[in-house]
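User: Hi! I'm working on a homework problem where we have to compare a predicted structure to a textbook description. Could you give me the structure for the chain below?
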Amino acid sequence: MTEKFQRLLNILKEMQSAVLAFSGGVDSTFLLKAIKESGINALAVTAFSEIMPESDMRFAEDMAGLIGIRHKVIKTSELNNPEFVRNTVNRCFYCKDGLFTLLSEIADGEGYKFVIDGSNVDDLSDWRPGKKAAVKYGVRSPLVEAGFSKEEIRELSKVLDLPTWSKPASPCLSSRFPYGVEITKEGLKRVEQAEEFLKNLSFHELRVRSHNDTARIEVRTDEIDKLLGKGLREMIVIKLKELGFKHVAVDLEGFRSGKLNP
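Assistant: Happy to help. Predicted structure tokens:
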């Protein structure tokens, strides 16, 4: 195993015990595997609410079971926070603030020394208001401390035979709404159903951005022609209008994670 992975194991062993904010994505699954290898006492906690696709929650359960770490799913209620619903540029802070409050309570109540997350060094250069909440609660990021980039995490995940090594990023559904567009339970469900429909058509990476009554579809540039193909295009338009969108558009720039952040 690499020197950097050994450094990660040493960081975890120094912690002795931790509660991990576990989404089941590439980073947190890799970190969970490292936790297992380190042998420390740990609990993986997945937060589930309207902003998370149910399929992602089920996948997180599967990954925790595969690796063999104790796992708990907790219910969060971001839509009860007016600041989150207003969807300002600091939306992620309010989400993470609520999450880390709950994880800190679990850690204190069950005797875990630290709360940790799966942030990597690439996250430091992106717009991440949630990091302010992490600092507020003293949440540590072992992958950052060990110096892991996203590419390195994917490469080593493949070596470790983790099924997440090639898993596309899956941020919460609220990221599909431009800042300033109010987030509603109905809107989140509509986006979730639209994206599930497109995934079932074998599009690999995609987003359905919700601009009020308009769905703006992002797929990889090499799949745009497939999306616009006769028959498939018409079927997609019909389905998304059935879900409540009045207009269906295609982003000709193609898919890019975090496109709404700039």
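For your comparison, note the following. Strands lie at 17-21, 41-48, 71-75, 114-116, 206-211, 214-219, 247-250. The longest strand covers residues 41-48. Good luck with the assignment!
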